[in-house]
Structure formats: C-alpha cells, structure tokens
C-alpha cells in the first residue's frame, strides 16, 4: 500500500508556495529601495526645471489705440 496523503494539506501547501512565488516576482518587478525612489524623484524634478527654463514666454501684444 502507498502512503496516505492529506489532500487538504497538500492544497494549502501548494497555495502557500504559489503565493510566495508571486510575492517574489512582485518584489523583483515593483520593489525599489528608498534611495532609488528618492533619486528618481530628484532627477524628475531637475528634468522638469530644465524643461520649464526652456519654455518661451508668450508676450501679450501691445494694445493698439487705433483699434479702439
């Protein structure tokens, strides 16, 4: 005779291992350290300031008294 297997325990063990595998994938995919997030934020701010400094200022046309 073979070994008696508790199927409920096997299902729970499989579910736990699946969750752990998914958690590991998420840590790799989404996990960033605080330093990495701060660096990305600072680089984004610097880039935004650089782009804003290159914006052309739209001058309002002078009002012409003849049009009134």
TrEMBL record:
Segments carrying the region annotation (Disordered) are 1-26
Check the record and name the InterPro entries matching this protein. Answer: DUF4169
Biased composition annotated in UniProt, kind: Basic and acidic residues: 15-26
Task: Name it.
Answer: DUF4169 domain-containing protein
